[in-house]
Write a structure and sequence with these properties.
CATH topology of the largest domain: Beta-lactamase
Order of helices and strands: EEEHEHEHHHHHEEEEEHEEEEEEEEH
Radius of gyration: 26 Å
Number of strands: 18
CATH architecture of the largest domain: 3-Layer(aba) Sandwich
Shape: elongated
Structural class: alpha+beta
CATH class of the largest domain: Alpha Beta
Largest sheet: 7 strands, mixed
Distance between the termini: 20 Å
Strand order of the largest sheet: 1-15-17-18-13-12-16
Number of domains: 2
CATH superfamily of the largest domain: DD-peptidase/beta-lactamase superfamily
Strand content: 25-35%
């Protein structure tokens, strides 16, 4: 068996990919629909997530809501520990009963540490136990760089997340919990007569911005997980390590505008298209068509419109019998400046085994090759 590859399209105009960087210490920008990573910087480095880790607290609460373990009108009682917590607050009073829906708003809009502790204590008995459950759930979801010691993002050396994990989590909240995602876009929330504005700096500043969560501690700097939707595209980004709230707002706005304006989704190949022919071993046909089942669409930066390379690879020759629809290889899309992307290709037809006479001829030919 040998590795075979076909170059099915290649445009020879080779221009240098335009470099794009960020002042953030850690960053990741992803096009949600195509999954294209538009920019990443220290994306797998575990960092202090500060209040961005409240997204995991909300994930646990949203899962409980979807499962019917709690309801939006469920009432949670505020402990003395929750009421006394410092930092950003919803200002819940000790002994008060607060609905789950209001606690969600207290977290998404006001970033309330007190609201997070109320949720944690009612969900798991204690904040420490809730943090252990959060960590186990994160690991099961594939967020391998995430460990939690509390529900709030309060500084702790073992409380860590990576940009990749945060972007994954943000995308999960958007796609798995659409009935609750709208809370992130609320501009203000009033509790106990105190009105607070949403801390997300790109709401109302970037077209289509609708979430998610800021973070700030002295160690972590100013950070943000954000998302915006324009037309049929959605971009999710994470930045961390900015020196000021103003720098965070400016850099998030710049990255969002760049992601929407400098990239265009292009349909390269239609569904059912034959992209190559694979060599067949001991079959009634010498080759088999290799096809894509679905349309292949990719995000292409404006500077690389004439630089896209497509090739098909498979391990071959492919032994007969071959069943139509069997995955047989990969279509690779190579775009300068972006990670390579690949899509499965399938046998476009069935190929039966060849007869005895054909097998003898093939074997004879192989013997002749060896003798020569």
């Amino acid at each position: 068996m040998r590795f075979c590859a076909f170059v099915c399209a290649f445009f020879l105009t080779v221009l240098p990919a335009t470099a794009f960087d960020t002042i953030a210490h850690t960053a990741m920008v992803v096009d949600q629909k195509t999954g294209t990573v538009l920019l990443e910087k220290n994306a797998d480095q575990p960092i202090p997530p500060a209040s961005m880790s409240k997204l995991m607290t909300l994930n646990m609460l949203f899962e409980a809501l979807q499962d019917g373990r709690v309801f939006l009108d469920s009432m949670f009682t505020v402990s003395d520990r929750a009421a006394a917590k410092g930092g950003s607050k919803m200002f819940v009073r000790e002994g008060a009963a607060v609905s789950v829906e209001n606690l969600i708003r207290g977290i998404t809009v006001q970033s309330g540490n007190d609201a997070c502790i109320v949720v944690a204590e009612h969900m798991a008995g204690s904040e420490a136990d809730f943090a252990r459950i959060m960590t186990a759930r994160a690991q099961k979801l594939g967020m391998t760089s995430s460990t939690f010691t509390n529900a709030t993002g309060w500084p702790h050396p073992n409380h860590r997340m990576s940009a990749r994990d945060l972007v994954f989590l943000a995308n999960r909240l958007i796609t798995r919990f659409p009935e609750y995602y709208g809370y992130f876009a609320e501009q203000t929330f009033t509790w106990e007569g105190i009105t607070q504005k949403n801390r997300n700096p790109i709401l109302g500043r970037v077209q289509g911005a609708d979430g998610l969560k800021t973070g700030h501690t002295q160690e972590a700097g100013y950070s943000l997980v954000a998302s915006a939707s324009q037309g049929d595209r959605r971009v999710v980004l994470m930045i961390a390590g900015l020196e000021s709230a103003e720098a965070r707002a400016s850099e998030a706005t710049r990255l969002m505008n760049w992601a929407f304006r400098q990239f265009k989704e292009v349909a390269l190949i239609g569904p059912g298209t034959t992209v190559a022919r694979g060599e067949v071993w001991l079959g009634r046909e010498k080759t088999v068509p290799l096809v894509v089942k679905d349309s292949v669409s990719v995000l292409i930066p404006h500077y690389a419109r004439d630089e896209v390379t497509l090739n098909v690879s498979y391990i071959g020759p492919i032994a007969a019998p071959i069943i139509e629809g069997t995955e047989a290889g990969r279509l690779h899309v190579i775009i300068p400046g972006l990670p390579d992307q690949s899509f499965p290709v399938y046998a476009g037809a069935s190929v039966d085994e060849g007869g005895l006479l054909q097998k003898i001829r093939v074997s004879a030919g192989k013997i002749a090759e060896l003798l020569n």
